TrEMBL record:
It comes from the Bacteria. GO terms for biological process: methylation. SUPFAM superfamilies: S-adenosyl-L-methionine-dependent methyltransferases. GO terms for molecular function: methyltransferase activity. The keyword Transferase applies. Keywords: Methyltransferase, Transferase. This is Class I SAM-dependent methyltransferase. InterPro entries: SAM-dependent_MTases_sf (IPR029063). The lineage of its organism: Bacteria, Pseudomonadati, Balneolota, Balneolia, Balneolales.
Length: 361
């Protein structure tokens, strides 16, 4: 409806939402300049990650949207100095989600909005931990024409410009009066989400998307979460992953997810470091894998996990984890491997079958 001339997103990560905006700009032939702002290092809410994520986003942008889309690899405050006042028609705020952080982002970028400016706040429905977008949006929603989509994690729409698009303002009034409008967006979003998941699984099977290894860590007796994690693209058969913390952390346990796919791996080493010195702290390993061919791990799941359990109950201070892995088989290769193993053990399988028949008689 608003056909913005300038669109800015604060916090892009893998680019899921940003590239959705770009696709809409492209499909509807909107004369718009789009800017993604992120330092591509992560934070406490999104999790920390390496440069592979930026490389992936950069390549996607280069291939599909380079004509009108620009990636600004810097902090939000640094980027605000590069953008003219009164120039942005649509701003999507999706950075650090504490109340203080999102309020700072809103106040910093408010002068950059045009007279028809609209601000979108992501995650307005999340009220866990120190998430505070909901609190800021509740303070602002009565100061400006606004509407909140409550499906998913929530999306707040705030019309801050003095001359916002009349069609959009009419839509907001209608959506507040008729709950079916919000439900239409929710059901359409659900449809797209299911289609995406289906296509994503197909691409994983055909190995057309990057496959990621992740490291999760616990600082207290809590569940593992994406907020305390790192990720790297697993692109080669033989990989060394280096997961670096911004500052030393006292961790209680570590979990390594070697891939988001079925795999057979040889785990060569896991090393812990503090200030570039290796730490020899005793630990044991547990996993959701089958141990095969000696020391190999066979994962018949798309969520493989290897947990490192410290023998002492005291947390261990580290700032770097290095893991060496040989990816023996990935994805569809696992099916071929299992088929060969079953064929090798035909005699054993027949003996087992006879034993079961005798037992059940």
């Amino acid at each position: 409806m608003i056909k913005p001339k300038v669109f800015v997103e604060l916090g892009t990560h893998f680019g899921v939402s940003y590239f959705s905006f770009c696709q809409a700009i492209k499909d509807d032939s909107i004369n718009c300049k789009a800017y993604a702002v992120d330092h591509w290092k992560g934070d406490e809410h999104a999790g920390f990650y390496g440069g592979d994520v930026y490389d992936y986003v950069y390549e996607m942008n280069r291939l599909h949207f380079e004509g009108f889309s620009t990636l600004l690899k810097m902090s939000f405050d640094e980027a605000s100095k590069e953008v003219d006042d009164n120039s942005i028609d649509l701003l999507h705020i999706d950075g650090m989600h504490t109340y203080e952080a999102v309020k700072h982002d809103f106040q910093t970028w408010l002068p950059k909005l045009s007279s028809s400016g609209v601000v979108l706040f992501h995650d307005t429905c999340l009220r866990k931990d120190d998430f505070g977008v909901w609190k800021l949006f509740s303070e602002l929603k009565d100061q400006y024409p606004s509407f909140e989509f409550i499906h998913g994690c929530g999306l707040g729409v705030l019309c801050v410009g003095s001359h916002c698009n009349a069609q959009l303002l009419k839509f907001i009034d209608s959506a507040k009066e008729d709950p079916l409008i919000s439900k239409l967006f929710a059901s359409t979003g659900r449809k797209h989400s299911l289609e995406y998941q289906n296509n994503h699984l197909k691409k994983i099977i055909n190995k057309e998307v990057p496959e990621f290894a992740q490291l999760f860590y616990k600082c207290k007796e809590e569940d593992y979460s994406e907020y305390n994690s790192f990720s790297h693209v697993a692109e080669n058969k033989n990989m060394q992953f280096i997961f670096r913390f911004n500052d030393p952390e006292f961790v209680n346990s570590i979990r390594f997810d070697p891939l988001n796919n079925y795999i057979k791996i040889k785990l060569n080493s896991i090393e812990l470091f503090l200030n570039n010195s290796k730490i020899d702290h005793p630990y044991s390993l547990s996993s959701n894998a089958f141990r095969v061919d000696g020391s190999d791990y066979l994962f018949v799941t798309d969520d493989p996990q290897i947990q490192l359990n410290f023998e002492s109950k005291e947390p261990v201070e580290i700032d770097e984890v290095r893991i060496k892995v040989d990816y023996v088989y990935k994805g569809n290769e696992i099916i071929d491997y299992l088929t060969r193993e079953i064929e090798k053990k035909t005699v054993l399988k027949n003996i087992l079958k006879k034993a079961k028949n005798l037992f059940f008689k």
